[in-house]
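Narrative summary of target 7.
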Amino acid sequence: MIDRRKIQAATNSRFTRRGLVLFGSQLGLAGILGTRMYQLQVTENQQYAERAERSRIRPRLIAPVRGEIFSRDGTPLAENRQNYRVVMVREQTEDIQLSLKKLAELIKLDEARQEELYEIIRKSSPFAQVLIAENLTWDQFADINANAPALRGVSPEIGLTRHYPEADIAAHIVGYVGAPNEKDLKRAGPAKGLLKLPGMRIGKNGVEGIAEEGLRGTAGLSRVERDVHGRTIRELFRQEGTQGDGLDLTIDLELQKYAMERLGDESGAVIVMDINDGDVLALASTPGYDPNNFVLGLSQKQWVELRDNEKNPLTNKAVAGAYPPGSTFKMMTLLAALENGLNPTDGHFCNGSLWFGNRFFNCWKRQGHGYMDGVSAIKNSCDIYFYEIAQQVGIDKIAEVSRRFGLGIEPQIELSRVKSGVMPDRNWKESVLGEPWYKGETLNAGIGQGYTTTTPLQLAVMTARLANGGYDVSPRLIRGRNGERIKPEPLRSLGINPDNIALVRQAMSAVTNEQGGTAFRSRISAIGKEMSGKTGTAQVRYISAAERANGVRKNKDLPWKLRDHALFVAYAPTDKPRYAIAVVVEHGGGGSAVAAPIARDVLLHAQYQGKPPPDAVPSDAVPFWGHDPLGPV
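Modeled conformation, tokenized:
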């Protein structure tokens, strides 16, 4: 017989245990929840409160005001102007394409640009500001403000944009700014966020590029409150950034303008340096270009015209144009020979050619110069004399002295894309070309041809170091920062015998101030303002023996690209030098006829601080390509 009381008791016992297990589980769960709630509300309260606060309050970078750039006398070369622009935020725009279409009715925004902007906005962060257009006119800006209710997500803003008042006059010095590209962003490091701000511009070349970090300044900071949807409610805090450095350049603006005018429509460069402190007073490169077009945005037509121009307006020829120095190099060959024991009174006879190896090396004067010593060889630019002494002293010693005067070494100047040129020697040829040096190559190097290339700036440095008696003056462009003058580095001796430098300077004076000198007709006649210099004509094409026999074609009969480069280096005044100059006119022909008159007139302008008196140039002076000998003022 079944005992129901036992069954009931067993059942009650099972329910009791199940209840205990369930109750224990619930109690444990409640304990876990309670513990977690305690952690969230007490232990981790501060952490989550800070996280919530960060979600509610977002920091924003504020672009700093870019530092401005001034000439020697305080004239602005790069300044900031108001920039009327318009931006769009995707999250605030119901229909991106419709907003762009309405905006196109007020400003220039073709269909291709609208489609491009649509893709940029669509892929951007919902709350990021995307720059639609900038540098708007006041009327365009006013129209956008008046139509703001119909332009959802579109905001007109007033910012700053770069402006270059002197346009092409100082373009190759100052450079220009542009929007950061992908390479710029990769190199930016911690500043990447700042560079992504709408309308942000950075220096691309020139002083703008080389001094970018200082000119950019320090970003400001704003904290804004946002709702749960990410919309900005209000600004809680704002701290403006620090304006970038203001830079005072060494450039004498009036002299710079004159040098540009003197070069005219030709392709070339003029450098004027102070021989005592290295201040670059003029750095002209022609043709120039308007850097404002790069800030506003070049059209395809403008870009093609600049890119395809055979005179390369985008190249700063003063520092990036590498040319055979021609006869302007002969002072280095003579100085190397003097430093290695050459008696300056010892001479060589020039009959117009020299047989060496298995060929003739010719002088520019076919009938020859006769007997030449060191001074007369420089004065007459006799090639045969320098062939002779070059093979005596050797290429390595010529190169060693030349490097002391800055050739083959990149000048340390505050500009981008500066070339070092080439000062060859045996080791250079072996390491670069994998070939031995041949003796005949020394003869070509001795007259500034062959592998040797120099920039106009290097030639100016070489001339300045000769003019100051052999001290290591180096070029500089930045004279002061934020109103404080930067002291130039003290000069050190190059270790060259002063007597040898004095003899070279005597020879350079003979070039311009003695009858028969190659630049005598470009001399300065004003007492105390005379210049000393050296002409140079750099050959750019091969002249065959057959052509020499039949008569070398004149530059005027050749295509522009095949004509010789015209060069001239000089310093003034002769007795108490202060200014050094180098002039290169690409495919200009002869240095004495083309480059020397330019140098003369620029040096006169520098010494007189303006237009010189009429009698500063003699009546028999070579005019500048048929114009008034003093050229444009």
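The two ends are 137 Å apart (CA to CA).
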